[in-house]
Amino acid sequence: APFTLLNYGGIPLKGPNFVNIGDSYTTTTFYGTTLVEPCFRNAVGFAPAVAAQVKLPPRDAACPGAGIEHYWHTMKSFQFPVPKMPQRLAINKDTQLVVVSLGGNDAYTESMVSLALKCVASWTSPVERLSSNPCERRVGTRLFSRAKAMERALTYVLKDAKKRASKDAVVIAMGYFNPFPSAAGYCWERALAPVGDLKFVHNLFVTLNESVRQAAKNAGVLYYNPSAEEAFARSSCGLPLYRLISITGLPEFGVPFHPTLTGHWNMSKHVASLYEQEMQARRHGRSIARQTWQVGPGSKDAIML
């Protein structure tokens, strides 16, 4: 039973189901409703909220620290050395909806903590601080190259998810909230880090989301980019409790650099909407997939439907 709970986020029921494939962005949020288990899933977070709206029992295979390789291979859970089966095994021929949100952890060549320490060191160095982007100068080149290179690997994941699921399943490739908006120079966070590095983080997530979008297009599945609707007021620079992502995790009592509970609910609402739109389009012999791959004028962020 403990392994079943770890692998599926609950007891997997027979019949039609929804599968969540991902990392900490879809599992960890408000500590008050976090479940006491190795993957820190949230009782009212993204996966449960999607399941309630589309009326499909959830199989939540996501876990913090997961990368693309963990879709294919056994991994150890984030907090305890407990083996967790490949996420793809949660998908079966009864699966009607699959959401795949992977790639964020694959951009790093080392742990996020290690990268954060390097950035903080660069910001406190009198010499490096003279530059507007000391952190980018230290780690930017390899992060951008990895974010750009993951398109092919994500394409294979999405094609496999389509193959494993029901023949009429809806598969959605989901990107990431951007920690900083394009107008990062107006953020309160500029007191913590140089504006150039705030823009560096923004551009890195734009690049990551573009790889997810291209992979969705290659695989012929729907694409959803939470950042496309992330106006300044709802970004980490915005109002607490109203914003969709927080850098400090306070006062929302959540995980730093992760979506807030409001962000989880917002993502779930749009995923459920895309699912319903796609099902309605299919009843008329069409699909909205091609529309989801479009980008707005002068922007790399996909438009919202």
What brief labels describe this structure?
single chain, hydrolase activity, acting on ester bonds, 37% helix, 9 helices, alpha/beta, 305 residues, two-stranded antiparallel ribbon, 5-stranded parallel β-sheet, Rossmann fold
Compute the gyration radius: what is it?
19 Å
Specify the number of helices: 9
Structure class = alpha/beta
Instruction: State the separation between the terminal residues, measured CA to CA.
Output: 40 Å
Q: Can you tell me the residue ranges where pLDDT is under 50 for at least 5 consecutive residues?
A: none
| CATH architecture group name | 3-Layer(aba) Sandwich
Q: What is the third-level CATH name, the topology?
A: Rossmann fold
The order of strands across the largest sheet is: 2-1-5-6-7
C-alpha geometry: globular
Q: Helix proportion of residues, in percent?
A: 25-40%
Largest sheet: 5 strands, parallel
In the CATH scheme, the class would be: Alpha Beta
What is the element string, with H for helices and E for strands?
A: HEHEHEEEHHHEHEEEHH
**Kindly state the mean pLDDT as a whole number?**
91
Give the tally of β-strands: 9
How much of the residues is beta strand, in percent? Answer: 5-15%
Number of domain units: 1
* Full CATH superfamily name: SGNH hydrolase
Keywords: Disulfide bond
Organism: Lawsonella clevelandensis
GO biological process, one term: lipid metabolic process
InterPro entries: SEST-like (IPR037460), SGNH_hydro (IPR013830), SGNH_hydro_sf (IPR036514)
